[in-house]
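The protein record minuted underneath.
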Amino acid sequence: MAVPYLDTGGMMGRIALCGVFDIPNYGDHLFPLVLREELSRRGYAGNVVLFSPFQAEESFVENSNVHSLDDLERMHMEEPFSAIVVGGGEIIHWHRFGQKRTFNSTDFEAYPMDKVWLVPCFMKMKYNVPLLWNAPGIPFDFDADKALAHYLFSNIDYLSVRNDFSKQVLIDCGIPDAAIQRVPDTGFSLKNVATNQELHDARNHVFPGLAHYAVFHCNRFIPESEINNVVATLKELHDDGHEIVLLPLAYTHGDEDILHTIHDACPFPCLIPQHPLSLLEIIGILSDCEIYVGTSLHGSVTASVFGRKTVSFDYQQTKKTRDLYHQLGRDAFYVTDGNKLAGTVSNALKTQQPVDFSDIQQQLNHHFDKLFTLITQGNIITPNPSSQAAQFSDLVQKCFDAEYRSIGLVQRIDELNIALKRNEEFVNHFKPRAEYFESELNKQLNRVHELEELQQHPVKIILQNIKHK
């Protein structure tokens, strides 16, 4: 069962939703699902068009196309968007990390995350189309380029972020506190997207009759030394009567490969999907588990929303996940050391209580009310910044100058690393020979000392005899 893409033909206009929808990562694909549902509940009958750096079919979803951000301007000229929405996810940064582009990819390519939010900024500047943030996260500060960041952030009509760190980054870039909305992750609205029966049917489609089970998830970044701790934890769960489901959530991070490794390491049967699942199938599995254990933020979000117990095994020590567990009041169930995993899971099963989401849901209702109003009524908060074009041009030039210098430094670092590696290889090649000759030299020195002692010994005897006479 898959989530359908509803194209209403733009009867009430259309909006562009920009995010990470062109790579297979479960959490990123929740944002279109939730946004469409929340806007629809408020009466929006327009079209939500997805944009990402690359043209693609939306992962986990049937009949949903993702357009390239390179086509955003052309499509706006052909049929204007009433608003551009950005988010969510940890997407507001300059960095380009390695990602698998598709389920079947074998290589990790540098993903141009900066395009996800910069292109919408340029559209705002050129066409003054309303630009709204759907509670994305900012994982890093902008200390190196605060002036440019301040200019970009100042032109956003509705500035919402999903955690305190992101809000502080904006404040540090000169954005007034009053202009920033701190909104919970919109994944907390998942209970509105499907009925219990739909989730049950989706779960049964993958694992018929599944009951009394635990879900585990990790990605390729898990230290090899922690796999034994994971297997021991899963064995305790299995021995306690739980079926074990190993659930890939971020194929873009190589989940399926490492989970198959863990599957093969377990001396007991584990369930693992034989093919990529749909969004509803994943939600269905997470929504009815006894406990979710893993590193995925949205794995924890999904399970906790449906009243399930959760333990974060955050071996990467990400601030967003630590903040999430603090927000949920589950600090005691946030683990970074695998040696503590089994005990924490056991404690969670015995003592963990469901989270009261009433306040979070109220905040999200206010957020979606605001988005709906801005999209449908077109209330522009920030004026067209075209008068600042010269200033912006100067800032962009500085940005690219800095990038050019940065690339040069990276190349120099690579050269030095190569030279260092060669020197290390040279040293490692000659080190055994040097140790051998040093050992032989010490042996010869010891022999010389022995001969000198023997040579001096008769003299000592003669001197002793003379002294006695």
The longest strand covers residues 47-52. The chain has 14 helices and 17 strands.
